[in-house]
Amino acid sequence: MDELSGQLRIVEHELERCNHVLPIGVGLLPFVSKLEKALPVLEKFKPAVVWLFAANDFDDYKTWSARVREVTPRSKVWIQVGSVFAAVAVAKSCRPDVLVIQGIDAGGHGFEKGASIISLLPEVADTLAKHGFGDIPLVASGGIVDGRGAAAALALGAQGVVMGTRFLAAKETIIHPGYRTAVLAATDGGQSTVRAKIFDELRGPNIWPVLYDGRGLVTESYNDHAAGVDIAQIRSLHADALKSEHAGFGESRRATVWAGTGVGLVNRVQPAEDIVTEVRNGAFAALDRMKAKVIRIKAAVWSRIDSSGTASPRVIIQ
Ligand SMILES: Cc1cc2nc3c(=O)[nH]c(=O)nc-3n(C[C@H](O)[C@H](O)[C@H](O)COP(=O)(O)O)c2cc1C
């Protein structure tokens, strides 16, 4: 919390408050963060968004969101979940201002069992509507790295998108240069990344709630685990690699590189502002192309109807 306060002091110095809140989000992990220590920081800095993810129990979000709202009522509470069940449970218990729907393509931690946002987000939307929570905005997360992905998420019914992996290549992101090099070099994300719990076992016993694992680049630590190497040996090799010149990011990589399946589309370092502008413009362009395509298809259908009197599915496929 001291480190967080230090970072927020910098933000406070750099950015003007907007509607009394600091225009930035703060992410907290309830399973490991101490609520009583977090509250004074949130009360002092009043971030625009308090983002919660990974509680030991879905009910913990109820306590967290209620207490956060008490100390900073203007901050919005966003909660990230990875299943229809969790979305409904969290909507019922704390009515978050936004639900972030995380699909299985996401980099970093997420639900071990899951679906991609292509089926998850629409089912969440329909089920929430059925339970009377259709007014909670949904934001899509997992595998979105460019305007095409963002446009697809909007088409699925999302109000916005979250990107993690893409920002690993932002100039401002503070990561080890070897980490960034690995992200930029990776291709074919479905093959070069993997979801696994072993990544959380490397420094000692896994402390994450059982529901979660994480997606990262395939590493030697992962390969050893898959080959049945004893965990004590994997940990020892990992610890040695971290102390080496390349900090475990060298040729036979042992350090964890959290990244999503979209990693193959991330191939250059850019300022964060440029990433946001590029993705936004790319989404508009993709939506325009989609609209133009639909208009062309409709025109084709109508021209066939004009000549034959009926529209056949074959015409629609054309
Ligand atoms: C390096 C990395 C670190 C992450 N750390 C967190 C975190 O601390 N808290 C959190 O809620 N999500 C975290 N995430 C997950 C993101 O919230 C988000 O779900 C994910 O990045 C979206 O998928 P994408 O990586 O394909 O864009 C992290 C993701 C990455 C790649």
Order of helices and strands: HEHEHEHEEHEHEHHEEHHHH
Mean pLDDT: 94
Largest sheet report: 6 strands, parallel
Tell me the β content: 5-15%
Bound molecules: flavin mononucleotide
What coarse outline follows from CA principal-axis ratios?
globular
CATH-defined topology of the largest domain? TIM Barrel
Q: What's the helix count?
A: 12
Helix content: 40-55%
Q: What is the spatial order of strands in the main beta sheet?
A: 1-2-3-4-6-7
Low-pLDDT segments: none
Tally of discrete structural domains? 3
Number of strands: 9
CATH level-four homologous superfamily name of the largest domain: Aldolase class I
Describe it.
The protein has 318 residues and is of the alpha/beta class. It has three domains: 2-169, Aldolase class I (TIM Barrel, Alpha-Beta Barrel); 177-265, no CATH class; 272-317, no CATH class. The chain is 46% helix and 14% strand. The strands form two sheets. A six-stranded parallel beta sheet has the order 1-2-3-4-6-7. The structure holds flavin mononucleotide (FMN).
